[in-house]
Structure formats: structure tokens, C-alpha cells
Specification:
The complex is a heterodimer of chains A (230) and B (419).
Chain A lengths: L3 E12 L5 E12 L3 E6 L5 H8 L7 E6 L2 E2 L5 H11 E4 L11 H12 L4 H14 L15 H13 L5 E5 L7 H18 L2 E5 L3 H5 L3 E6 L2 E7 L2
Parallel strand pairs in A: 3-8, 3-9, 6-7, 7-8
Antiparallel strand pairs in A: 1-2, 1-4, 4-5, 9-10
Chain B lengths: L2 H14 L1 H37 L5 E4 L38 H10 L3 E16 L2 E10 L1 H8 L5 E4 L3 H4 L3 E5 H7 L6 E5 L5 E10 L4 H6 E5 H7 L9 E6 L5 H12 L2 E4 H4 L1 H39 L1 H9 L4 H36 L19 H27 L3 H6 L2
Parallel strand pairs in B: 3-8, 5-7
Antiparallel strand pairs in B: 1-9, 1-10, 2-3, 2-6, 2-9, 4-7, 5-8, 6-7
Helix pairs in contact in B: 1-13, 2-11, 2-13, 2-14, 11-14, 13-14
The chains are: A alpha/beta (230), B alpha+beta (419).
Amino acid sequence: MNEKILEAKNISKYFHDPISIQVLKNISFSILQGEFVSVIGKSGCGKSTLLYILSTMDTDYEGDLLIDNIPMRNKKEAELALVRSEKIGFVFQFHYLLNEFSVLRNVMLPGLKLANYSEKEVEARAYQKLKILGIQDEALKNPNQLSGGQKQRVAIARSLINDPLILLADEPTGNLDKKNSEIVFSIFQELSEVFNQALLIVTHDNEFAERTQRIIEMEDGKIIKDISRN
Amino acid sequence: MNYKLIASVSVSLLMARWKQTLIAAIGVTFSITMFITLLSFMAGLNTLLDGLIGNRTAHIRLYNEIQPSKMQPVDLLNQVKNHHNFISSVKPKNEKLEIYSNGAVMEALKKDERVLGVAPKIIAQVFYNVGAIDLTGVINGIDVEAESKLFSFKDYVTSGEAIDLRNIPNSIILGKGAAEKMLANIGDVIQVTTPKGERMQLKVVGYFQSGIQDIDKIQSYTSIITAQKLIGESNTYITDIQVKLKNILLAPPMAKEYAKLFDIEAIDIQSANSQFETGSSIRTLISYAVGITLLIVAGFGIYNILNMMIYEKMDSIAILKATGFSGKDVNWIFVTIALTIGIFGGLLGLVFGFGLSSVIDQIPFNTAALPTIKTYPIDYNIKFYFIGTVFSIVTTYFAGFFPSRKASKIDPVIIIRGK
């Protein structure tokens, strides 16, 4: 039996500017270990907002969020930073690599921050992650020498460096062409099947979503469909 | 906290913008350089100017003065005790200016542990006879050795040897101005007349130049014995005892103490020359004000550059936070950047400041008023370097404080969603 690693209980969120709008309405669901979940829905349905709440970066919400069965409410900023560091990997639409550092160093940074391993070990692990993503040859280049698809793969490697419980992604293929999207998808699939990694992907791409294990469809801040396959 | 990681991130951010960083550091370097140079130069100048009076003037001077009686007979009358009395029937009487039993007084002074040294002196009014006219003058009879040791007398004898005063009988060292008026060369014999009408011939063995023209026109020096002969007094007669203290700040209370103990007039250097002290402290104040202003301006430069860097690196900050860096870590990254600029800029500033002061120290500075000075004066006081270091670190810390706090408060969600 796979354990619950992330649970949302009655999460609601309001935007107050310029007028109060409820963007999320009593969202409840949970994600088990190894699940490959996609969240789809039209623009403005609140799927990205939900993702940022789940990532602990947005703390202005009602309801409860449990990661690894620990409630996130009332945690301090520094404690949440530690949770993100240990348990969550994040991939954005844009790669957000730091051009001041080499690819390898970019992947290592979150690992060095958590400091569970020595610098040598973190480096070895970074190489290992880059190898999984098939870009170990680019390790010593600067991010701006890489193609868009390669950059996104580096970003995925960075999100995996601390072996997170769950990998959250916001439109990871939004900026990529068909071929690179395919590569990213197969990487996600491999992570899910081979490494039993839980993934929650917010996407516009219905084709992409249909190939995942579980699809959550949202509309007007509510979950309208939650279909698991297999 | 992982200081090594924070330092490496800071250094990378610094290097990514190395031109701006360099300019900010140059700002600090320049201000510290000027701070050090300005203060060293100003302090050197202060020491020089204070020395003009301070080195040559006794810290406490003991002397007698012709004074009216403090008590008039009418004050003794009981009937008018609470009235204002303006009858002063007792006039000052003709007293000798001699310090009585001066040998005993000097012995007592020498035994006092606070005293560095004691030099006796005779001050006598004379006329220098030049052809048909008489110039008023003052002859100081001095103990050459004590005077040289305590009041650097030798430094101000610009021609001739000070010690000749003791070795050659009836010799005189003329003030430079007086010598010029009298057309007296070294080796010449001049004639002086005392107010009592006694005449004496004295051989010129040197010139004296104090840097204060009014003094040089009037004052001359002889040995004590010559002065005693000149005014026809015994060999125990002296008019002044000059005391030099180990700590100049003790002069005012000690002057009062001696006045009471020896029943004599005593004046301390601070009361006699208060304008010099005021001048020094105001000059020092102005140099500190200018130096600190320079540093604050450099601080604003750092503030601007950090602010720009934060706007530019907004994405990087957001991603650092998304991947587990806390606000405190981000704060430390930017504080480290500011302090790095401050410390490196400051250290370079200390080196350049020392260099520039040494250059100024080599610039010739010849003035008739200051015979002992050949180059611009510089005070290489370690205190200025210490203050410079502390200030460069403190100002850059504060310049970095607000931008760093802003960076630490950046909400990654807003940045990332804004794309």
C-alpha cells in the first residue's frame, strides 16, 4: 500500500485586489507515493494557484495542507524553506537556471543548501541525476550555452537533487517544441515507473495529460473530474 | 547556516556584475584614502601648530607680579562691611620680581613625580642700542641645557650653536627680527641698556627664530649668569620657574596647587593659550566631518548598486527561495556582497591612504615661520586606520542592510507567476 504523501483538505483561496474573488473553492484531494498526476483546466481556473499553495510558497489560504502527514499551517518561513528543500522538487515553465553558475553547480545548489551530504557527495549525486536525464556531458557548461530542452532537463535534475517526496511542475513543457516535450514527458514517465517518484504536473497540453496515471480537471476553482486509469 | 555556500553564491553574483562591483569598491577606496590622508595631514598640522606654542611654553609658569594689595584698609572697617568700597589708599609698592628661595622651590618641584623637568629663567627688559636709537627688547636669561631638553630651544636657533651661550661669557642669541634691525652678524658685539641705565656689551653667537615674528623682533637669549650681571643682581636671582609636566592635562589643577603651596603666581598652558586648543579641536572636527561625509556618499553608491543588482537578480532570488533558501539566507547573501565591497574597498583605501600621506610627507614645505619643518607634516597615527576600517565596514553594512532586507522579502510566487 502506497502512503499518502500530500493531502489537501478544504483549501480555499481569495484574491482581494481589486475585488475579492474566490479562486479556489474547498479543494480536497491526496496524492500517493509513485502517482503520476496531471492537473488540467482552462486558463484562470486556479490550477497554478493551487500548485503554488501545494509548494508551500504561497501561505495565504484557508484549509489545511499536509505534506508527509505533517500540517504546513503555522510553520515559519524558514521552516517552510526547509520543507521545500527536503521534500519538494519544483519545475517551472521557465527554467530559472542561474547564469552565474555552471550547469553542475546549478543542480548542486539545493543539495548544498540542505547539506545532508558533503560537497563531494552532492556533486556525485548531481552527476547521477544529470545522467538519468541524459545531459551529463553538458555538466560543466554555462546554462546559456544550452538549448531550451536541455535547460528544462537541467531544471528537472535540480528539482531531483534532494530526492524529493514529490515533484511539482507548472507547465513544464509550455515553452518547448514537440520533440523536447516528448523527451520531458518520457523522463517524467521513467521517474514515475522506475524510481516510483510522485509527480504533480499542471499542464495545458491535453495530449500530455491523457498519458498520465491520473487526471484532475479543474474549473472555476473546483475539481470537476478526478479520473485514475489502470 | 551554510556560510560557505552563501559566500560562494555571493561571490558568483559579485563576479557576474564585476564592473559595477568594482566601481562601488573604488568609491569606498577613494573615500577611505581621502579619510586617512585628510586626518593624517590635519593631525600632522595640528601637532605642528600646537608645537609652535606647546613645545616651547612651560606647562606651568611660576612667577611674581607687581600687584595691588588685595585687601584695602577700608575693607577692614566693620561699619562698611556690606558696602561697595572704592577707596584704594594702598598702592602697589616697588617689589623685586624675584622668586624668593627659588632653589628650595625648584628642589621641591623636581621631587614631584608628575613633573618632567624644571627650568629657571630671568626675564629682563632692555633696550638694544643701534647707533643713535634704542629698540625695546626682552632678554631671557636661560639655563641652555634645561631649556633645550624641555622646550627644544636648540631647534629654534637657526644659526650658531645654542650651547655657546654657556661656553662664551657675555654672549647673546638674538631674535632673527631684532638682528636684522640691528644689522648684527654672528661674531659682532652689540650694546644693550637696562631700564636702570646700566650698559653692557654682548657678543652675538647665534640667531633665534621662533616662527612668530613679533617675538623674534623683541626677544633674545643669554645665559642666566649673563642676565644676572646685566641687571646687577646676585647669582640666586631668577624671575620665572618653568615646569614641564608628564601629562599636560594636569596643568590647570597643578598650577592652582603650586600657587597656594609656594605663595606665588602660577599660570597653566591651557589658560595662557586657550585659542590654540580650540583651533586644533575644530580642525579635527572638520576633518572627521568631511571624511565621514565621503564614506556616507560611498555608502549610497553601494546602496544603489545593490538595489540594481536585486532588481536584476529578482528571478535568481525567487528560484533560490523556491528551491529551499530561506529569507535569512538571501539576506545574508546580499549583506555578504555589501561587506565584501566594503572590506576590500576599505583595505585598498588604507593602503592608498598610507601611500598618499607618504607622498604628501615628501612634498617640500619651507617657510620662514617654521624653521624646523622641511616637508608637509603627516601624523601616521594607527588610530585613523582603525577608525577608517571600522567606518568602511559599518557604512557598507548599513548600505547593504535595506537592499538585503528587500531581497529577503521577495515573494517567489509573484516573480515566477509574473512571467
